[in-house]
Amino acid sequence: MVFVLPHLLVFLLVLLLPISSIAQNNGNVTVGNSLTATDNTTSWLSPSGDFAFGFRPLSNQKDLFLLSIWFDKIPDKTVVWYARDDQNIIIGGATPVPRGSKVELDADKGLVLTGPQGDELWRSNTIVGTVSYGGMRNTGNFVLQDSNSNNLWESFNKPTDTLLPSQIVERSAGVVLYSRQSETNFSKGRFLLKLQDDGDLVLNSINLPTDNPNDPYYKSGTAASAVDSGTSSPGARLVFNNSGYIYIQRENNQTFPLNQEKLGSTSDFYFRATLNFDGVFTQYSRPKTSNANGSWTSLWSIPGNICLATVSNSGSGTCGYNSICTLKLDQRPKCDCPVGYSLFDPSDQYGSCQPDFIQGCQEDKLSTGKDLYYFEVLIKTDWPNADYAFLKPYTEDQCKQSCMEDCMCAVAIFRLGDSCWKKKLPLSNGRVDDTLDGGKAFIKIRNGSSIPPQQGPHSPFNPESRKKNQDNLILVGSVLLGGSLFVNIILIIAICVGVYFIYHKKLKRPMTLSNVNSVETNMRCFTYQELVEATDGFKEELGKGAFGVVYKGAIEMGSSVPVAVKKLHSLFQDNEREFKTEVNVIGQTHHKNLVRLFGFCDEGQQRLLVYEFLSNGTLASFLFGDLKPSWKQRISIAVGIARGILYLHDECSTQIIHCDIKPQNILLDDYYNARIADFGLAKLLMMDQSHTRTAIRGTKGYVAPEWFRNMPITAKVDVYSFGVMLLEIICCRRSVDVEAIEEEKAILTDWAYDCYREGVLDALVEHDVEVLNDREKLEKYVMVAIWCIQEDPSLRPTMRRVTQMLEGVVEVLVPPCPCPFSRTVTMS
Ligand SMILES: *[C@@H]1O[C@H](CO)[C@@H](O)[C@H](O)[C@H]1NC(C)=O
Ligand SMILES: *[C@@H]1O[C@H](CO)[C@@H](O)[C@H](O)[C@H]1NC(C)=O
Ligand SMILES: *[C@@H]1O[C@H](CO)[C@@H](O)[C@H](O)[C@H]1NC(C)=O
Ligand SMILES: *[C@@H]1O[C@H](CO)[C@@H](O)[C@H](O)[C@H]1NC(C)=O
Ligand SMILES: *[C@@H]1O[C@H](CO)[C@@H](O)[C@H](O)[C@H]1NC(C)=O
Ligand SMILES: *[C@@H]1O[C@H](CO)[C@@H](O)[C@H](O)[C@H]1NC(C)=O
Ligand SMILES: *[C@@H]1O[C@H](CO)[C@@H](O)[C@H](O)[C@H]1NC(C)=O
What we know:
Layout: H1 4-22, E1 28-30, E2 34-36, E3 44-45, E4 51-58, E5 61-71, E6 79-82, E7 96-98, E8 102-106, E9 110-114, E10 120-123, E11 133-136, E12 142-145, E13 151-154, E14 162-163, E15 167-170, E16 176-180, E17 188-195, E18 201-205, E19 218-219, E20 235-240, E21 246-250, E22 255-257, E23 269-275, E24 281-287, E25 297-302, H2 306-309, E26 324-327, E27 333-336, E28 341-343, E29 353-355, H3 361-366, E30 373-379, E31 381-382, E32 387-391, H4 396-404, E33 411-415, E34 419-423, E35 431-432, E36 440-446, H5 462-482, H6 485-514, H7 518-522, E37 524-525, H8 528-534, E38 541-544, E39 548-557, E40 559-568, H9 576-587, E41 597-603, E42 606-612, H10 619-623, H11 631-651, E43 666-668, E44 674-676, H12 681-689, H13 716-731, H14 748-758, H15 761-764, H16 769-772, H17 775-788, H18 799-806, H19 823-827
Helix pairs in contact: 11-13, 11-18, 13-17, 14-17
Family: Belongs to the protein kinase superfamily. Ser/Thr protein kinase family.
Organism: Lithocarpus litseifolius
Catalytic activity: L-seryl-[protein] + ATP = O-phospho-L-seryl-[protein] + ADP + H(+); L-threonyl-[protein] + ATP = O-phospho-L-threonyl-[protein] + ADP + H(+)
């Protein structure tokens, strides 16, 4: 009975289905038929209706479609194949195509995909013979056949990242499965699966955009080389058989199973095996019946633990560089940045992490003070392969100190009681590994650098680190009590050495600290003469600002370092102490979106600040120049500035309000990262103006309304200016355009709100196609900007909120009109 019932069901289905689907489709498509990519596009269904071939809209890109095959009966329409151009490694293989593209069945060329203008984008290659029809088969295979029903082309022979039951990958065909970029981005990703010439099934990471592989992180062990007394025959094909079992079939027909478990019946379950975008190859099943609320269940995966598996000579591992991989219960990786680091691209959880501070030998030399760095401790964490020094025998304290004093060192690993590895950036293959019991990773973090918000996904290790430190103490204690005599002697020596060092430090400290003021511990104090020489007599002027004139120069620091020297207007003659305090506050800032202050000069009337020199000019010249920068670049600049301001507002020892945020005060470094300049100077100036109380700080067009009213000045003035500047970044135009032909366009903030309210953002960005292709983000950014330019400071979001909105962590609500205060407010 148990067996009869499913068969009876299948029999009934076979009887019923053709009748119900004949009306629309018998699975056959004749030459000349076509499909067009639109919102209500039709598709070519398999006779059973399980699979469909056609265009699927990309979930995150409204106007892009993917020519693909998908499970049509399940709500999430899981894609199992997509048109991919294997020749074109630069495009990355996948072919999301614009609205209006068309796929047509041609007798000679097979399937031909053309763009809205008729340009050919892709075709099913290697057709020999004349196609008479094509068909979506019940297995999920799309085939093209000639008049004698010979298969001329099959999607099963061109798999993308997924295999289905009855699909066979022949070693001789040289087929390779590539992962996607991400769950929703179908471009070629970082991992591949193939049956190698020697018969081994392997998983490799590759070095995009080329296919060049790193060492495999999984090997089936089915290669020809006979280890076990000459019996092993090489793997010939990877078989996903009709009952859902996956195995490697050797040349002698022996099978090497990849899964051993008993599976449900293919009449009750859908099966698929996918090389996921994170490099894990997984077989999934899903009940056919509970369509509405079923989901794919993972049956097994290779490798078993990808975090531990991806050590290779190059490549970052499954997570990006500097990231740490932990395995989730479903055998898929989770990637996190260590504390002190944050995601390079906030929308890519699996991408690389970058330090939130600047570290390097030149940087360290320029900051002569002690205690530049401190350590965060992680246990059971390692980044194999990034070490440049291996010290042994060495104590933990020696290990830490050695890393602390070495400007190349980013992380020190102490393990095995006497082994110390020093590691440099970028760190790769970061993982949490339970077998590294007792191993400690000391992550070097710049003192005073910004620590990302604790609640965010970026710093999961921070809240635990205190607890872990305690664990370490207990660990040291138990080693002392439980270890052998030899270990104890070593430890006692280590402690003595440690005490000696601490004692010496203590002795030295009062001497150095007594006559060094706080400014000098962080920055260099220049003489006026030194700066005259550095700038060649203030010869080359870089720009003029509200606070002074900037000159180009170079200082000698081992090598010649280009600098920008700002000569301040003489404003605060009798305030020497406060000048130093303020400069010290500025000097303690370390953030990748701020311009670094190297040093200062304070001699009589002469007050100068020495900044790092940035090569790519100001944001103003970048935005309003002849060439429009790309939308992606502008987005990353906007996010960078927001983070920089957030740091000034929330994460410095003393809050810094900039008061003059505008594109002229944003500089761009070699990589076009936004770096905020001139921060902290407003306070210096305001100190001076407490006597006068007349002038309005900031620059016309960017100035928050509270400056004109008798209202307290808070950090929200920067939010206002940021909002104005965000609109300028979106539109690549100045906030006030006196030459505007149409009067309603002259004031950008008004014009932007009008466009937003009337739903004509196309006009706001002057029909910039690149921006309009990303309409969702455009709309979000405009909404954020409108929130920022609210007249009422209390309605404006904080910079933390702004960054969260820009990064998509929180939703952006519909903003109110940024109109002048209502009467009640002005009255009060
Ligand atoms: C498709 O058409 C061919 C020839 O017209 C026929 O032999 C074949 O059975 C058809 N396939 C289906 C699934 O109807
Ligand atoms: C697509 O569907 C919409 C609404 O469902 C309808 O108004 C429109 O005419 C359809 N377009 C085509 C080409 O069928
Ligand atoms: C997918 O990722 C690639 C590489 O990161 C990128 O160039 C491409 O624009 C992305 N495609 C989509 C549709 O987001
Ligand atoms: C598929 O493979 C499994 C395991 O090797 C075997 O038990 C089963 O009979 C095979 N099914 C088919 C249809 O070949
Ligand atoms: C393997 O099986 C195929 C088909 O069943 C058969 O033709 C072939 O001779 C077999 N090879 C060996 C080495 O047994
Ligand atoms: C599906 O959802 C319904 C109600 O939401 C529930 O009663 C049913 O048990 C669910 N089925 C499965 C297989 O989870
Ligand atoms: C900076 O260094 C000092 C001295 O080592 C230390 O006491 C302090 O905790 C450090 N600051 C941070 C943020 O860790």
